[in-house]
Every structure is written in structure tokens, then in C-alpha cells.
Protein 1
Amino acid sequence: DAMVIQNPRYQVTQFGKPVTLSCSQTLNHNVMYWYQQKSSQAPKLLFHYYDKDFNNEADTPDNFQSRRPNTSFCFLDIRSPGLGDAAMYLCATSKSSHKETQYFGPGTRLLVL
Amino acid sequence: SQKIEQNSEALNIQEGKTATLTCNYTNYSPAYLQWYRQDPGRGPVFLLLIRENEKEKRKERLKVTFDTTLKQSLFHITASQPADSATYLCALEGGSYIPTFGRGTSLIVHP
């Protein structure tokens, strides 16, 4: 089945220790998104790629970076995680950016010790 | 400022009843609005999309209405079942072509 896969499902890191979360998709969609979701809050868009074009949200901290080496894969790098970065990180895709349904992965739960 | 408001209190209903969830928004003129379901510890799953020129959309036991004058969407689940228990998020296009999500409302269906 075509899908969005996120690894790992749970990630524990130490304060200040860089961490990378990964996302892959078999849908061959052009757009990939990274969201941060804290408990009982709305998913917050961090950035998205339309093909190779990177689009950063204005309020996304510099501590968060992303890479998309090819259509199928996208990575979220947190350079120096703080306690406030503990959250669920959701990867999503859509066929094109406009008026399209988003398909989400299962998420990676990040814990910062 | 732009706001999407969904009731933060959980909606508790009995099995078989119709659940109605509300999504209100301010300072948006969305071309469309979507509803997603999210189970604990999982990513959201798309349910329905309704466009600005549509008043109502149905899919099996689900019905969505969209009133651009009231700036409100209602999401109905008829003949609700315990398996419908989840958080339901609305998302609307805010002019940047990418949907913005509300925080969701938790629905609990009691047997």
C-alpha cells in the first residue's frame, strides 16, 4: 500500500544533542510537510518542500532544519534540542500544494531528557 | 488575527446518537475546509473536504456543512459508534494554499 512512513516512532535524545527524524513516502507526491504537535494543540507547520523548493514558516526556529535528498525522503534535523522541543513530529505529503488532501505519517514522538 | 476555534471540551455522547462538532474561524476567507480524524499517538487521517461554493458534503455516516457567512463548519457523525471516538480536526486554507489546523475536539462515544 502507498503510504507515508516515519522512523523512528519514538526518539529519546538529550538536551542539546542533535537528532534527525526521517520520513519516506511511496505516494510519489510533490509536496512534503513537517509539523510539530504538542499535547492537545493544533499541528503547527514548520516547513514544506514543493519538489526541491524549500519553504520555511516565518516563526520556525533556526534550530530546526530540513533536507529532502529526493522525492521519496525528507529529514527533520533538530540541531540542539531543548526541553520545549519535546513533541510529536508529523510528516505529511500532498500531490500538489493547492487544495489537496494531506496524507500523514504515524508521527515520531520526541522526548528530550 | 486569524483564528480557528474548535471546542476544547470533549464531546460525550451515547452510541447511536448523532455527534455534531463545530469549527468557527475568523479573519479567513478559505477556498475550502477539511476535516481530519486523529487517534491518540497517530497522525491525522483525512475525512472530507468541502469547498466554499458547497453548502453540504456527505460520506457514509459523515456530513459536513460550510457556512461562509457565519464562518462556521459543522461536522456530523450519525449513528455514532464507540469506534468513532477520536479527536476531530478542522483545517482550512488560509490564503497561502496550505491548510491551517485547529486544535481539534475530542469525541467520546459511550456504549
Protein 2
Amino acid sequence: GENVGLHLPTLSVQEGDNSIINCAYSNSASDYFIWYKQESGKGPQFIIDIRSNMDKRQGQRVTVLLNKTVKHLSLQIAATQPGDSAVYFCAESVSGTYKYIFGTGTRLKVLA
Amino acid sequence: GAVVSQHPSRVICKSGTSVKIECRSLDFQATTMFWYRQFPKQSLMLMATSNEGSKATYEQGVEKDKFLINHASLTLSTLTVTSAHPEDSSFYICSASAGMGEKLFFGSGTQLSVL
């Protein structure tokens, strides 16, 4: 993976609303993508992944959308809850390599 | 799902001492593991790639003699911070994958505080 050491943007969402977190990836050859959730003082937690042969994948309350044309990835969280407050970041990878590139991350704040 | 175990979760040590952090893949074999450093409110910074049975590959600017990595088995990699100083205080995280281009799982992180 490569390093991105920037300060994090913040998204504030009202509890119960849907959240959309975006990620622009850099390598057109990337064909595997992962979203992670990181709570304060903890390691990143795997949320959902998607391969480039798909445009959309759904999990429990989460949906990942992939737009290869513009190299854009998004994570949608339905009915956002206080427990969703965390930093979310994406990762891109190329099959056949151990190279993972991480996005800068977005801090999600859920307002009561 | 796959789990990566990292410990200790928190360590406080005196300046000049060495600290070892362990990273284990619990239900899969990992020929490659990664070590990161993370500063508050910032993203992950890759320090090195740990390769089972061979030398680790360090990122530019990371001192290999300062941060010793040993990947002696397919389920264990260790990071030793040698002669730790206060500037080494940070959150260290490991990750592992069962294979190339596969899911990457992270350990729970180690908060190192050097007094």
C-alpha cells in the first residue's frame, strides 16, 4: 500500500438519514476495492468489498457503488446510526499483486 | 471471517528500551503482512511489507535498523521498535491477506507511548 498522510474531511449526518461517502481511486488497473471503518483507537474493520466486474454490491445497511469510467467508489450507509460514527476509507488493489492503495479517509459524524 | 490478532494493544515504555509487537493471522496463512503507523486524525502510513522467510521491504524514510521486522512463520510477523524514543510514540497497525488481490484484514492496533 501507499501512504496518504493528509488530514481527514468530515461528513456530518443526522441520525436516521442515509450517508454517502465517496472515494476517487487512482489506478485504472485496480480491479478490487474495499471499504473500511475505523473507530478511534482501533484497527480498521472490513466492511464490504467489490470487484471490477460489478457496479454495485449490497451488504447489511451498506451498499458500495463502483464507477470505473470515472474511477469513483462510494459507500452508502442506510439509516445511519450513532454507532456508525467513525473514519471510513477505501482501498484499491490490483489482482495478482499485494499492492493496496488507501484513500485519505472521511470522518463520519452522526448527529442525534 | 478472517481475523488478524495484534498485541499488545497498548504499551508504555521508557526511552531507550525496545518494544515488540506481534501480529498473527488466526485462520489463514499470510505469506505477506504489512505494518503501518498512524498519527492522530491521519490516514495509514505504510512502513514495511513483511515477507515470510525473507527480508522485509521498507518504505522510503523508514529505518530498517530501528524497526525490525521478523516474519518467521506463515501466521506470525513481529515488529520490534528498537531503542524507542518519544518521537516513536504512535499507533502501529498490522494487516494481512490470504493472497494477492484478496481481502486485507487489519489487526486491532498497538498504541505505543515512550516516556
Protein 3
Amino acid sequence: DAKTTQPTSMDCAEGRAANLPCNHSTISGNEYVYWYRQIHSQGPQYIIHGLKNNETNEMASLIITEDRKSSTLILPHATLRDTAVYYCIVRGEFNQFYFGTGTSLTVIP
Amino acid sequence: GAVVSQHPSRVICKSGTSVKIECRSLDFQATTMFWYRQFPKQSLMLMATSNEGSKATYEQGVEKDKFLINHASLTLSTLTVTSAHPEDSSFYICSASFRDTDTQYFGPGTRLTVL
């Protein structure tokens, strides 16, 4: 079962920052938080992952709370091509990924 | 880097036939590969985990005799759907990871339609 909960859907204006929250209150000390996105009828695309420090790459930033029970993915300047379903994942005992329902992000022109 | 391919991208078959889907890691050695299934408007469901050279571990409710998984090399895993039925029609996606990392890299998926 997925260890994360996310809002079902969100809208964001093009050019604005998209902030996607995720709760993972049962995360244990050595488990990473992963973010992927899936554009319709394609395989999921890796975005970013982190353990406890904030992370940034060319796609996004990941902010993890100090107690690690939640995190936020930030797309700094959303474009129409960022419209997708975003999944926050904490791996299972044997490195499996159990996907939750994700957040369907719609970027509005 | 970390590119995963799947073949075929689409397949249509008759009920009762078997279908093989290939998953390849193109630029890295995948010690572990995963197979997922996704029905329309639903999330990905993990079917099985396979490590190179050993038997796959199936998730609860997934029939191992129906979904045969082979991971014979560090770059190739195959999923064979045996005696396919219309309810097996779905989007099948594989992913691969390499030693010492949990990051999974996903293939583009295979759309299976069983008539």
C-alpha cells in the first residue's frame, strides 16, 4: 500500500510556481521521498528525490519538513507541458514503489 | 542516461494467446526490474519485482503462472501474459534500477489489447 497521501487535483497559472504537497507521516529514518510525473499514456518520469535536506535540480525543488512527515514539490515556473499526474512515493521494504493516486496538475494558460 | 525501452509499444492479440513484452535498460545494468500494470484512469499497480538471475517476487493477487517474468540478464527482463483474456487488456510498464540506488527509471509502456 502507498505510504503517501496527496490532493487529487490542482490548478496552476502558466508562469507561476506550482507547489504540490505530500504527506508521508509513517516514513522511517532512512527512507527517501521520490517524485515522479506521468503524462498521459507514457511511463512515469523521474523528477527528484530527497532524504531530509532540501534538494534542487533543473526540473524542480523538493522541500522536506524537519520532521520528514511531509514534503512539497515546487515547479518554479510552470509551463503547459508540466500538466501531468505527479506522484510522491516512499519505497517499500524491498525497494518497491507503491503508487498512490497522485495529484493531477493542470497548468492553465 | 538511465534509459529504459519497452517492446512492443502496442499489441493486439486474440483471447487465449500469449504475449511477450520486453523491457531493456539501454545504458546501465539493471540489477532489479519491476513490472506494473495501469488500468484507465487508475494509478500504477506493482505486479512483481525481479532480480537478475533469480525468481521474480509477485505482489499479492498477481498470478505468477499467468504473468511469467524472466530476468535473464542485467539489461533485459520479459513479461509474458499467458492465455490472455480481455480483462488483461491494460497498460504494462516496466522500470529498472541499478545497484546501490532506489531510483527507478521507467519504460514508455506497452498497451495490450486482448480481443
